[in-house]
Automatic annotation (TrEMBL):
Membrane topology summary: Lipid-anchor; GPI-anchor
UniProt keyword list: Cell membrane, Disulfide bond, Glycoprotein, Glycosidase, GPI-anchor, Hydrolase, Lipoprotein, Membrane, Plant defense, Signal, Transmembrane, Transmembrane helix
Molecular function GO labels: glucan endo-1,3-beta-D-glucosidase activity
Domain X8 intervals: 367-449
BP GO terms, sorted: carbohydrate metabolic process; defense response
SMART domains recorded: X8 (SM00768)
Family classification: Belongs to the glycosyl hydrolase 17 family.
InterPro entries referenced in this protein's UniProt entry, alphabetically: Glyco_hydro_17, Glyco_hydro_17_plant, X8
GO cellular component, one term: side of membrane
The enzyme's E.C. designation: 3.2.1.39
Organism: Zizania palustris
Protein name: glucan endo-1,3-beta-D-glucosidase
Amino acid sequence: MGARAVLLALLLALSAQGRRFLAADAAVGVNWGTLSSHRVPPSVVVDLMRANRIGKVKLFDADPTVLRALPGSGIQVMVGITNDALAVIAGSAAAADAWVAQNVSRYVGRGGVDIRYIAVGNEPFLTSYQGQFQSYVIPAMMNIQQSLVRANLANYVKLVVPCNADAYQSASVPSQGVFRVELTQIMTQLAAFLSSSGAPFVVNIYPFLSLYQSSDFPQDYAFFEGSTHPVVDGPNTYYNAFDGNFDTLVSALSKIGYGQLPIAIGEVGWPTDGASSANLTAARAFNQGLINRVMNNKGTPLRPGVPPADVYLFSLFDEEQKSILPGNFERHWGIFSFDGQAKYPLNLGLGNPVLKNAKEVPYLPSRWCIANPAQNLDSVANHLKLACSLADCTRLYYGGSCNGIGENGNVSYAFNSYYQQQKQDAKSCNFDGLGMITYLDPSMDDCHFLVGIDDSRSSAVSSCGCGACCMVWFLFFWVFMYLRMMGFG
């Protein structure tokens, strides 16, 4: 049976649920990323989310160390299939069965993990990927859907595809929104699938990036307090970039016949460091403004009174191992710092007026590595380069909160970042005698010198993004395939 025929059969099987527009109240959740060498134990993270009444979490893979901490938490979970796994799953129903068995079926059930969504890829249509994953998305969705049917989970676990906002575009105003030409057919297939299964179209929207990437972008248009540069689109006027972007997607969906499809926001937020426009004040203003609009069911000009189906803030924590190719701010999106401490007052609209901090965080001892004041630092350049190539020094650069602490301060900050990443190994503070360990906190003003986390209690199995669980899954897959070939499957 060809791919189109299989898709048609699936849509017919799902059509009993009918095409519908979900107008339920929105819920605020978070993205939980794990690209950090200072990982808070998953059990502490789950307690943190529960203390803040966060009822939805979006993961970027299906990390077993994370999923094992979620049973019985009452938190609804979105797990993810990484882009690199799409080709294998698209080409093999057995691989899809193996993935569902390994990452979904084993965790769900009474008292288990409340897995509601599977994200098939993460921004797989991103322009910079140059179509690398594009042809695999729909076949992978069909195979995973059939696997969910066989596992009796299809009525409960829904499939979505988180898309970057560059999947659609507009010449000038939201009403002219269209999908990129090369994506029109695949987006029509995706929208048909989502509509029939009752799942939302998931999109990631970042007004911060619009402001960061263009000096001509009106700063007040990125926030929610109104703008002196509104966009007039016929009878509609847009006073903020989020609404304009959202309605551009609504227009694009309308042009392919799915203008009533529910839309969820997979990622949205504002960084707190690493750029001149990334700071605590701006992050709080943006996130609180967004949450207030969502909770007030304000909607947008094309969907008045109807908020997004769900909104997942990006991100729960800072992740100091993220790539900084887009900018130094990439490591500072968290509403909490890496150790689960709230960065600023934020009312998530979930019952707590401010964020509550993580408790029982297993910090390393209170000691730091700094530049030895008795040594001449003329030969420090190579050591500084080494430290910052392996640890995070993004706060030191232009726009960072530690940018003005002086040369000795810069060296100390870099040395300490490396020292903490190395779990306070005394040898990592040597730097040919230029470093020294101190028990006095060297933090100054808004520049905080971190103390790392003792993650020895956590499982040695890392996230799929780091390769370990992917290897486990592939081993599982090939054992599964061998048993099938031998007649045991």
